[in-house]
Amino acid sequence: VLREWPHSYAGFFADTEAFLMKNAKVKLCLQASPMNGDLLLEDCNPESDFQDWSWQGDSLMNHGTQSCLSMVGANRVQTSLCSSAGYTSWDCSNSLLSPLGSSQGYLVANRKGVALNSVGGLKAQWQDVADRSVCEEKAEQDRYFPAALASTHVYGHTAGNMTLALGIGQEELEELLWFFRSEDPSTWNYSVLALSFVALILGLLLLAINIVRNRKRKIHMYREAVQTTQQAELEAKQALMPVQEYSPAELQKQEPVLQDQRSGEVVVQWKDGTVTSLYTE
After folding, report:
1. Torsions phi, psi for 70 (to 5 deg)
2. Average pLDDT along the chain
3. What is the pTM of this model?
């Protein structure tokens, strides 16, 4: 039912329905055992779910075990399934708890834990951590629970009063309520996780493509550099060894001279084209 109510009402009951049951005499809190349903008196610990109790109509349910405070036998009390035969409703008045419609006595703290006893007093008085009677918790729930179920227009009426008190418009109030809503974030968390995996895969793919392109670019630049170097070396060699061009007539004119030369003879070719021996006999 709370899931279908506006978030303001759901948050209100979520904060007020759970409370600790502290004995006024021993100053210890009632704790349910998750093993066998026994009830213990331990130091008060607001963080423990096994010390959290709430009124479900006339029943007291433990949040840690999801079981109800039940009477077993003549004076024994423990927790059992709320739908079991041992389910017991409780009457609460003046901080005293007693089985509804029974004369077994009151819920009393003792050395072993709790039991039913006809003797009242501080040992039979149960309070929360703020020293408020557990009966006040029940009365508060009984007062607001039917009011919330009586009409589906309660939220709209309350929202209108809030707009007058805060001085903001209805649309702004609805926007704020939507922004500060409380809901199960599992769907959003799974969506973000899936998007993270997709982004990771896309990033790895882009990284691989970038690496391949850089490698191809470096290979292309290396080949261009090698070709440029080889071309420069070739041009340098051609500059150091110039090729002299001769006409066919000059080649024929020089051939007899070359034929007349003897081994070991040094000849000089002058600018006018004549060839003479450097050393004459």
Report:
1. -130, 155
2. 76
3. 0.46
CB atoms within 10 A of CB 90: 22
Which tens digit of pLDDT belongs to each residue from 17-42?
789 999 988 999 999 988 888 899 99
CA-based max dimension of the chain: 161
Beta strands per DSSP E along the chain: 22-23, 29-32, 39-42, 53-56, 59-62, 67-72, 76-80, 90-93, 96-99, 106-109, 114-117, 126-127, 267-269, 275-277
Going by C-alpha positions, the residue among 104, 257, 44 that lies closest to residue 53 is 44
DSSP 279: S
Both tokens assigned to 56:
């479900």
**Chain centroid to CA 74:** 51
- Please report, as a single letter, which amino acid is at residue 14: A
Query: φ, ψ for residue 98 (rounded to 5)?
Result: -140, 150
Report d(CA 173, CA 136) in Å as an integer: 32
The pLDDT of residue 31: 92
Task: Encode 125-160: b = buried (16+ Cβ within 10 Å), e = exposed.
Answer: bbbbeeeebbbebbeebeeeeeebeeeeeebeeeee
Cβ partners under 8 Å of residue 158, min gap 6: 8
Encode pLDDT of 44-88 as tens digits.
998 999 999 988 888 889 999 988 998 887 778 888 888 776 657
Going by DSSP bridges, is the β-strand pair 267-269/29-32 parallel, antiparallel, or unpaired?
Answer: unpaired
User: What pLDDT does 195 receive?
Assistant: 94
